[in-house]
Dihydropyrimidinase (Halovulum marinum), 490 residues
Amino acid sequence: MEFDLVIRGGTVATASDTFRADIGIRDGRVVALAEGLEAADTIDATGRLVLPGGIEAHCHIAQESATGGMTADDYRSGSISAAFGGNSCFVPFAAQHRGMGVTETLDLYDSRAQGASVIDYGYHLIVADPTQKVLTEELPAAFARGVTSFKVFMTYDLMRIDDSQFLDILTVARENGALTMVHAENNGMIKWMSDRLLAGGHSTPRYHAVSHPALAEAEAINRAIMLARLADAPLLIVHVSTPEGAGLVHDARLAGAKIFGETCPQYFFLTRDDLDRPGMEGAKFMCSPPVRDPATQQVLWRHLQAGTFSLFSSDHAPYRFDDSGKLSKGPDATFKQIANGMPGLAVRLPLLFSEGVAAGRITLQQFVALSATNAAKIYGMHPRKGTIAVGADADIAIWDPDLTRTVRLQDQHDNMDYTPYEGRELTGWPVTVLSRGERVIDGGALVAEPGRGKFIKRDRIDLTGMPGHRAPETDPARNFGARILPEGPA
Ligand code: DUC
Ligand code: ZN
Ligand code: ZN
């Protein structure tokens, strides 16, 4: 058998197994897993782990906020940073703002991504204006175009939808086989807290955490789960940050609801003490939901170990520490005026490997599942992506599990002027990253051209093992034929 490239002598790991094998690659795909494969072009992976390339499933790239601020990374810098972090695919957001159509939104993001990305990409569609046209025509059209996940917000005055709009979107998503994602925080609780804090003269970044109480996350997650159960629609709760929220996700899964949970590195490695750094430094650590405390971190680790979370995503939302980003409203801005978000594309996987696998908290199989396989399944890319198997795209990250490095801003490849993880020593780093069999990162350098990354037309969500549990009121068999929901897959 002829190969374009063989990865020799490595230890291959998937979400289910670890084994010694060479990998034969042809036409961008894995075509052989065997011993003793030969080719003119080889990569020696002796002493290395050969893993599916990471899939970064939550990041904000070339995205305007509702108030007009632009993220610091575009598809070029964002994809390069992701690749240095061991990712061979990423799925940023395409954000519909009020008054915009969905098709118009996706066309805009196509123009931003095409010709720029070094790795394959897709988008999650943020839906902020679910008009009848959007619900009946544009969301099905987005699904047909391969954009099969829709995100909604329960907070932010300019983005949030109400409960009945949420039910409409869940229902359309269910009918199409799409997945709804939700930012679940109670808008009224946050507004009430913020107004009182500001009236009392408490405006520095530390009060950002106070204004987003854990109860606000728990209330909204609980409500979101109930809405999803009423519609019998799958729902992913993004960036879960509290024990209360994680417990709700866990219980819902146990009860058989189609609920998925995502969490992020900042909730494991940063605390509200970081928000309390001198001057405006705390602004660098502001994200929503906010970072919490060490006790929360311990509980979140246990949920990660127990399988509550299917995804561990960066939520890379890059706003520079200058007047283009965090300080756009001046050096004395209140916590309400400072953009929420921090960078993390390049360190998501090294943080999880070092503190998860190397520190003995999670297995290598859990790491692979959290870094790539689960995202591929949930977001309709499996088995083409997210695993190492014959027939899959040769999206592969080769890791040196013993390499210890300190995170430094000068080694980053994003467009940011800080990293929240400055000075952190981590063991285990990706050294070579392939996308469809092509070297993207090799020998610590970028060796691919922007624009080689392709849009991935995604498929429906994989709901294997997640039963339907319609509420009686929406079940056509039990609601006296009221037909609240059109017939769809059970
Ligand atoms: N939600 C996100 O998902 N990312 C950045 C900020 C936010 O509110
Ligand atoms: Zn969010
Ligand atoms: Zn986000």
